[in-house]
Amino acid sequence: MPLSISLTVNGKPVTANVEPHLLLVQFLRENLRLTGTHVGCDTAQCGACTVHLDGRAIKSCNILAAQADGLEVTTIEGMSKDGQLHPMQAAFKECHGLQCGFCTPGMVMTASALAADSPDLSEDEVREQLDGNLCRCTGYHNIVKAVLEGAQNMKARA
Ligand code: FES
Ligand code: FES
């Protein structure tokens, strides 16, 4: 039997009836058409589906839509403001932290939550904290560079 949920997605209130087994990633992509959140594995391993739930980075293939009831979800579509890229998005662009871009939304969501908590991360810490986000293209070097630069840009803008 469907459940009624009310949550905030990218700053807008959303109310919907969802099946109890519907994953949050399916709700975002299929119900709300927010397809910037990608599905790479569907088994909580690749991080492509990462979004913010009340400011924390979570894998949206690993949580039910019903569990987001009453909470605030931010997806990659909600990161830019007034036509300006979020500092972490801008750093990925400047540092060439992407190639095919499939992993990038999840990387940006993980990295921005991480940098909000710990702006002065070391390279080793970035590498350790990003171990739940997989990239098949870049070799990670420019991603790490982007996260370090994005963290400093976020700090400067805070
Ligand atoms: Fe969620 Fe891979 S699709 S972790
Ligand atoms: Fe292609 Fe990361 S840029 S998977």
Automatic annotation (TrEMBL):
Keywords: 2Fe-2S, Iron, Iron-sulfur, Metal-binding, Oxidoreductase. Residues 3-79 form the 2Fe-2S ferredoxin-type domain. The keyword Oxidoreductase applies. Signal peptide: none annotated. Gene3D superfamilies: 3.10.20.30, [2Fe-2S]-binding domain (1.10.150.120). It holds the Pfam family Fer2. One of its GO terms (molecular function) is oxidoreductase activity. Its cofactor is [2Fe-2S] cluster. InterPro entries: 2Fe-2S-bd, 2Fe-2S-bd_dom_sf, 2Fe-2S_ferredoxin-like_sf, 2Fe-2S_ferredoxin-type, 2Fe2S_fd_BS, Beta-grasp_dom_sf, Diverse_Oxidoreductases. This is Carbon monoxide dehydrogenase. It comes from Caballeronia grimmiae.
